[in-house]
């Protein structure tokens, strides 16, 4: 059961040398994903720009299609500048979503769950052409 | 009688009323117990038109005062034992003298012989103020009621009906609500004396009614005394209005920046004409009616637009196409959005040998944005149907058409090319970032079809893998959106329905017709929901119809299958 008293979505920013870490908590959905995108874009626009943007997903409870769209939009912001976009501690459901939608390769995944998933799933799918 | 009063009475006994009460600010009449006027002060003399002492009260004063005197003297005659210990406050009598109204207060006369001194207090002004207050209260109550009734509905017809009905009940004998014409015809609603409102359209020249065309354009109203009732055209006189029109008023119904219509009030010759005060009140009512009416009209326009846009976006009814059973089911997230982010379509092959293309997809986001993107995807895919032999190529073209630099609104979908071959159905399935299709085999196994690909509409390059399979008679392939597997609920209220549960449910559906599979899954997912809230859910079942082989009669040909 989820704790009913939790706020629906939380976002904390930790800026370190060359890297910014956004700690996500709660539900990333239609109502909250815009907030994440705005914050991430603000971090990327900072001077000097970070080399790595880390999204710590350990507190994430849910991520719907709007959340996936937000991740794609953040990726669109990081890829031209060569910024590494890392998803840390991605929960199993998020990995599953990234897998099904075929966008897992866009992110650097790290954390216990991700390692486990990767070992189970084997190499990423190769299109038959 | 109180000793103190007796004492005063003795002292003043010998003086006449005019001396005693002359300077009093009220008219005073002293009447003895037989009803004869004994004395008057000058104020009373002028009020009663020169009545003199010695006249009978019934002759000198209006009858209500004479009756009041009789009543007062009779009650004073009652035995002392009947009188309560605490004397009740003396009664007050009211009546008119000439054009004004008075309160008459009796007091015992100083002669001690049962006579009465009548003090006449002019209460005309107070009474008028009280009447005005009562009218004001009634109007406030009426306006409050009008607002309640008017705001209860966003239906234009209903607003017009209520406006006409209320106005004919409180403001005039007949009321007409006329709204700006859409073409040459003028829609109007009328009511007579609070009766049921009637709707009518007339072809009429508004210029014939003074102030009407101006009011329809929102100009301030023309005072009703400028409107000649005799000049009103016949179409303005409602059926059921008897007699001739004595006065009319034309009041604009102000809307949100635009005039919402006009309220025409009619009174018969027997009623009083509209006073300025009443016209102001009619405008207050019109302001409320106009606000309600224009809100209703804006809402009607908006829902018309939405309906037009949505008509094409509703999921189609699916049926048998070229020997293959298709069944679809769609439950939008909110009942009010009849369309949402999920969609499905079946584009039949032009000949029975050509594959039909079934599509099921899910667009990111919700509401109108999602619905519009859904429409775009469905149209694009329909145009690309001739390319259905190459699913990946089709998806690439679709992806290119959807890419947008402003957002990453994407869609995931499954393409299924479906062709009947004898009694089997050949399927080519491709997922573009969508949950894999499931196939229920006749032995109860549920297979996940291993097709994978990238979602469309967000990334410049996509990949997809097409997988082929075959359905035997009675077997079903189910395409679904994640609204089904992500239905949150169950015994603890926060568990996802999930793929495993879906597969178990489907295993129980082996051999069932496609429509039954769809209904069964929809039912289970809905039951699973904890609080009734869910994402859009869409399902398409593709079923090879169960057949019986008819063996060839001559043994040389292959024979045929029923259905």
TrEMBL record, chain A:
Family annotation (CDD domains): STAS_anti-anti-sigma_factors
Gene3D superfamilies per record: STAS domain (3.30.750.24)
Ranges of residues in domain STAS: 9-103
Protein name: STAS domain-containing protein
Organism annotation: [Kitasatospora] papulosa
